[in-house]
Each structure stands twice: as structure tokens, then as C-alpha cells.
Amino acid sequence: MSKTLQGKVAVCNRRQATGIGFAIARAFVAEGAYVFITGRRQAVLDEAVAEIGENVQGLFRADSSNLDDLDALFETVRDDKGRIDVLVANAGGGVSGALGLDYRGGFSTPTFRDET
């Protein structure tokens, strides 16, 4: 692999250490990143860390809807690595529709079509 993420610090904030979030973390490590992962179920988080093996740290059980948990996550990463280069916020729900539709009425973050 090209190791395009060599030396980068990534945080994969996900509800469980499975599925798409797990695949992202595994791919980032394969590309050279050091990855912090979170999960709501400690046993699943521990299994994910063991399976990825290297350059990964499973943090504590964290709920991405809890601001105190997010603050603790940030402080841990800052104290250990000093920065976040890549943040994957892979938690929550969504809406279906074509790309380019304006969903700003239902979200507080920019969408694909935000031109401000």
C-alpha cells in the first residue's frame, strides 16, 4: 500500500466497533495512521482493537451524544498524540434523498450544497 496516512492521527468515533466504522479504522491503520476508536460496548471495542492489532487504541466506552464523553475523548487524544488529523464521525442517523438537496432545515451542519 502507498501509506498515504503515514504519521497521521485519526479518531473514529462510532457507536460500536463494528461495521463501516471498523472497516474505516482498519483501512486507516493499513495506510499508516495511528487510530483511536471508541464504542459503546467495551467487549466489542476490545475485540476490534485486538483484530486490528497495531497502531490502534481503543478508548473507553463513549457515547457520541454525550458532550462530556466527547470532551474526554478529545482530552485523551490531545494528551497522547497532540492533534487530530482525521476525524470520522460515524454515528447517528440520516435522511435519504438525492445529493444536492438542501437538508439544512433538519441539520445544524453544512451539507453538500452549502455555498456559504
Q: What does this entry look like structurally?
A:
- By secondary structure, the chain is α/β, with parallel strands linked by helices.
- The protein has one domain (9-90): Rossmann fold (3-Layer(aba) Sandwich).
- The chain has 3 helices and 4 strands.
- It has a 4-stranded parallel β-sheet with strand order 3-2-1-4, sandwiched between helices.
- The longest helix has 15 residues, at 67-81.
- The protein is globular and about 35 Å long.
- It starts with 8 loop residues before the first strand and ends in a 26-residue tail after the last strand.
- The model is unreliable at 109-116 (pLDDT under 50).
Record keyword descriptors for this entry:
disordered C terminus, Rossmann fold, four-stranded parallel sheet, 116 residues, 4 strands
Give the topology.
Layout: E1 9-14, H1 19-30, E2 34-39, H2 42-52, E3 56-61, H3 67-81, E4 86-90
Parallel strand pairs: 1-2, 1-4, 2-3
CATH architecture: 3-Layer(aba) Sandwich
Which outline best applies?
globular
In which order are the strands of the major sheet placed?
Answer: 3-2-1-4
Can you summarize the main beta sheet?
4 strands, parallel
- The CATH homologous superfamily is named NAD(P)-binding Rossmann-like Domain
Strand percentage lies at 15-25%
Question: What fold name stands as the CATH topology?
Answer: Rossmann fold
Class by SSE composition = alpha/beta
Low-confidence sequence ranges: 109-116
Order of helices and strands: EHEHEHE
Supply Rg: 15 Å
**What is the class in the CATH system?**
Alpha Beta
The residue fraction in helices comes out at 25-40%
